[in-house]
Amino acid sequence: MTVPPTGTPPATPARAADTAPAALTDTAPAALTDTASAALTDTASADGSVAAAGQGAPQPWLRGSAPLTGVHDVLLLDLDGVVYVGPHPVAHAADRIAAARRGGLRVAFVTNNASRAPADVAAQLRDLGVSAQAADVVTSAQAGAAVVAGLVTSGGAVLVVGAPALQDAVTDRGLRPVATAAHRPAAVIQGFGPDVGWRLLAEGAYALADPGVVWVATNTDLTIPTPGGIAPGNGSLVAVLATVTGRTPVVAGKPEPALLIEAVNRTAAAQPLVVGDRLDTDILGAVRAGLPSLLVLTGVTTVPALLAAGPQQRPTYLAADLRGLDAAQPAATVLTDDRSVCGTASAAMAGDRVEVTVADGGGDGLDGLRAVAALTWARTDLGLPTDVTGLNVAALVPPNESGTAAER
């Protein structure tokens, strides 16, 4: 599969899809390319405008679909905010994952966390009631090692700036992990590890002084949540080496495509669906990889954040939680630049303000939000003013049993 250039790359990190070898990008089933293309074509026009829908034709901004469990063959599930929130399971996640598997779907748990071994992640999931084996977990450490393996000679030395799990991922790819620049490594791979300190960062800087040494970062999350509060993530430590060396790494984790491509290749998915709770990693990563996505409102995304999402961070589908996998998805259609409809709901402009009407009965309680999102996105892309500050958020989102951000 060749990853389509669906978005503008970030200003600093190189994108793994632009630099990874054919072995990483071309091994997915051919059907995936057709699926991804159809998903992108059907979701919104190339420039995201109402006019581009074709001579004023109604524009679907959130796709309609039969129940997603009957359309897709593999679920690529984010973890924190989708399956669990911190130490707590997300309501309905375990039983819906089990039901999807009973229906014949395969599941991969896809995480940007490079510090934990897949077996450890699987054990945590089992403790939360989710059946999982190490082989079901795809980490950014594994994706990063796959990128490195395609760029250096087999058996080559790779300086690992990260946790033991990252060393294991490098070894699994037939490469030789080392800890000092004196070994003349062909590459530096950098991932989060709580014990990474000055000496190891310095070794990374020494190695990267050679412009021929490849630099791969597993992810660039600037912060991570800890029991004591917000702490520096791998992105903060990547920034240290970038400042010292004047270089930028190839990035494997979300929102770059390599991690999702690794998951697609691992599962031999023909009709994959990315499921996540974050617009800036899960949904943007899906868009960049050319894959359809489902945003669930059990994590960090708030209603205002969803309505403010740019073209590259808009999901294909929307659900309150993983129960949405089993329900038909109504299309949200912009009829004109001041009116949209979705299932039992409609949104219309009253001056610069959005007003919502929702009929009683039917639907999953999100039709009003879908209609507002479609209208807001369409007007934003046309440069038209849209005031959503007066919306009653609680009326747009069903009660959330996990008490997460969507209700705010």
Protein structure class: alpha/beta
Overall pLDDT: 85
- Tell me about the biggest sheet? 6 strands, parallel
First and last CA, distance: 39 Å
Total helical segments: 14
Strand order within the widest beta sheet: 1-14-11-10-8-9
Topology overview:
Elements: E1 14-15, H1 16-19, H2 22-25, H3 30-43, E2 59-62, E3 74-77, E4 84-85, E5 88-89, H4 93-102, E6 106-111, H5 118-127, E7 137-139, H6 140-151, E8 157-161, H7 164-172, E9 176-178, E10 187-190, H8 198-208, E11 214-217, E12 223-226, E13 229-232, H9 234-245, E14 250-251, H10 258-267, E15 272-276, H11 279-289, E16 293-296, H12 303-307, E17 317-319, E18 332-336, E19 339-342, E20 345-350, E21 353-358, H13 367-382, H14 393-396
Parallel strand pairs: 1-14, 3-6, 3-15, 6-7, 8-9, 8-10, 10-11, 11-14, 15-16, 16-17
Antiparallel strand pairs: 2-18, 4-5, 12-13, 18-19, 19-20, 20-21
Looking at this protein, list some descriptive labels.
408 residues, alpha/beta, 14 helices
Tell me about this structure:
There is one protein chain. Helices cover about 30% and strands about 20% of the residues. It contains 14 helices and 21 strands. The chain has helices spanning about 15-20, 20-25, 30-45, 95-100, 120-125, 140-150, 165-170, 200-210, 235-245, 260-265, 280-290, 305, 365-380, 395, and strands spanning about 15, 60, 75, 85, 90, 105-110, 135-140, 155-160, 175-180, 185-190, 215, 225, 230, 250, 270-275, 295, 315-320, 330-335, 340, 345-350, 355-360. It has a six-stranded parallel beta sheet with strand order 1-14-11-10-8-9, sandwiched between helices. It has a six-stranded parallel beta sheet with strand order 7-6-3-15-16-17, with helices on both faces. A five-stranded antiparallel beta sheet has the order 2-18-19-20-21, covered by helices on one side. The chain is globular.
